[in-house]
Amino acid sequence: METLTTPKIQKAKWGLRILLLAFFAFAILLSALAAAVYFYAKILGPPPLSVPQSTLYYAKGGKLIGETNSGQQRYWVPLKDISKDAVDATISIEDRNFYHHHGFDYRRMAGALVADMKAMGKVQGASTITQQYARNLFLTMDKTWERKLKEAFYTVRLESNYSKDQILEGYLNTINYGHGKYGIQAASQYYFGKDVKNLTLAEAAMLAGIPNGPGIYSPVISPEKAKQRQLAVLQSMVKNGYITEKQATEAANEPLTIVRKAEPDTTRTAPYFQDIVKKLLKTKLGFDDQTIALGGLRVYTTLDIRQQKIAEETVKETIPDSSQVQLGFAAINPKNGFVTALVGGRDYGESPYNRVTQATRQPGSTMKPLLYYAALNHGFTPVTMLKSEPTVFRFDGGKSVYRPHNFNSQYADGNITMLQALAVSDNIYAVKTHLLLGENVLVHTAKQFGLTTPMEKVPSLALGTSGVHLLDMVHAYSLLANNGIENGPVFITKVEDYKGHVLYEYKPEKKRVLNQDAAFVTSQMMTGMFDKRLNGYASVTGASIVKDITRPYAGKSGSTNTDSWMIGFSPQLVSGVWVGYDNGQEITLAADKMYAKKIWAHFMEKALAHQPVEEFKPPKGVTAVEIDPSTGKLATPNCPVARLTYFISGTEPVEPCSKHPDTAENDLYPHKHHNWLQKLFPFFK
User: Fold this and answer.
1) Pairwise CA distance, residues 492 & 285, whole Å
2) What is the pLDDT of residues 279-331, one digit of tens each?
3) Which position among 54, 92, 94, 159 bears the catalytic label?
4) What's the whole-model pTM score?
5) Where in or outside the cell (predicted)?
């Protein structure tokens, strides 16, 4: 019997075929679209994973001294430095199939859709870790279809260009844990006061539960809800095979201490120093403002925390709160050029103006060591004699007149040596030396010493009338302390990005800029300010602080009507102090004029207290002989005072002193005996 196909049945078959063809066409189209999206994502390449990261500043030894952020504390740590419990807890509660999908968990999405339909509302999320990471990196939190499509596309880009571990690491370092802490390291430090690698299972489970609702599950905001969420995380870990029931129970019963670790108060740690470092990152190393502020840099500096604390405390102890004077202070290790301490003013909160690098002030007599270094290279020696007396210098055919004077108008009214002129800070000797050399010589020498401010070719330049920066002067003295080798000033030793890649590393480039022998002889003459054997018509300028020092130092003080200076060094450390008023007001109080020397002496003694006493080591090109300070000739047994003095070899005196006859009285002052200063300075014989 023949089976007849009715038109109705035939039409149904055709409809089914069309439906199947449409389904296959849609599937092909969808696959083609997915492939197109995937290949487009590959063509675009990996999306940038950079997010605002806190830039951190470290002192020598690795102590954190500063931080910049946008209100979001975030410290990137590699996945290997995150505790396994924290990783497992996060995957278990947020995306248990993370390592098995390609960005979208379709089964979980379907389950969430069913749950939402049953509840007639949004009750279950289905976003994977990759989707959440994409949202955190690139998108706003508005709930629109456009945002959801973009999220899906960025999810594809992430999955097609980065490994699962890279995505997980980025996610853990960017998610919000509440209270301005972004990333699990910042959260671990805030909630538990420890690095994330040291978290216990209980702590890890507590943290893993917070991102789902930082304003709800923070243990600071709601300890009860945070505890419930922790238990849910632990049970998910049991269900997903990460831990046993026993481990979950033990973790649930473990008492937790929420420390709420405060942000480090970095604004009080060498703020002027930090400002210089930030400026150097831009001007010298080429980082842009955004990278410096929020690029997650790790900046390692030369700051010595101990010396910085000593400097700040010494300033506070020396200058009373009632005084209105300001100051600048800087210290440098001359052996490597590292700036170890810096105080740019008495209160950064009141004035961030940095008197060490920004202020231009007259250095006064602290310019004289540079002048006498130049003189040594032009035929002078430490015993070159010039007359100290009231002198009028005339120029331009007598049209211009310059009348320098000594402190308190005291003069030797006779010849004195360069050695003594420097020790008592004779101004007439300095101006005469400057004019004999020619005014261009000191201008050139100042540049040779690294002074960056312009120098005027005038007679008064010898007395420090051209403004300088304190840091430049301290650096100049460090050249003398280091026998003429330049290697600083250095503030930054290394810069890393947030993943630990080295972006910059300081490499020493020692450069000889001064004659070694002349530099050493200059530094030895500078020890004279503490040597009372060089007293003459006036006392040596360091007499007031000799009682405060216990090791060999070289130095020079300086003063103008508006500025008070003291710069000096041992072989291990150079430091300098400027004291004055920002508005250029005249310093009239006697106490204000003494602050610079007191601060310098107390800082140096405390800073070097645990270091061995080092002597200045002479180079091969110098010769030491004992001289009579009053005549500059070789000391004889009849001279009441003799001082071991260094000369560039071949320039030392050969004529013995004949000023002092052999009398019994002179036996009271045998120079061969050690007096108090020889005990203080072993290199004096």
Assistant:
1) 10
2) 999 999 998 887 888 788 999 999 999 999 999 999 999 999 999 999 999 99
3) 94
4) 0.79
5) Cell membrane
pLDDT in tens, 606-652: 999 999 999 999 999 999 999 999 999 999 999 999 999 999 999 99
362 touches 455 (CB < 8 A): no
For residue 609, which phi and psi values (nearest 5 degrees)?
A: -55, -35
Is residue 54 flagged as an active site residue?
A: no
> Tokens standing for 131?
């989707």
| Those residues with Cβ within 8 angstroms of residue 268's Cβ, 6 or more apart along the chain or in another chain | none
pLDDT range class, residue 109, cuts 50, 70, 90: low
Is 365 catalytic? The answer is yes
How far CA 164 is from CA of 130, 161, 197, 278, in Å, comes to: 9, 10, 20, 36
Q: How far apart are CA 540 and CA 534, in angstroms?
A: 7
Alpha-carbon span 557 to 541, nearest angstrom? 7
Among residues of the chain, what percentage have pLDDT more than 70? 83
Q: What is the CA radius of gyration of the chain?
A: 38
DSSP assignment string, 224-278: HHHHHHHHHHHHHHHHTTSS-HHHHHHHHHS------PPPP-GGGSSHHHHHHHH
- In contact, 577 and 566? CB cutoff 8 Å: yes
Of 54, 160, 365, 388, the active-site residue reads 365
Residue 485 has which token pair? 């080798």
Output phi, psi for 226, to 5 deg. Answer: -65, -40
Phi, psi of 661 (to 5 degrees): -70, 165
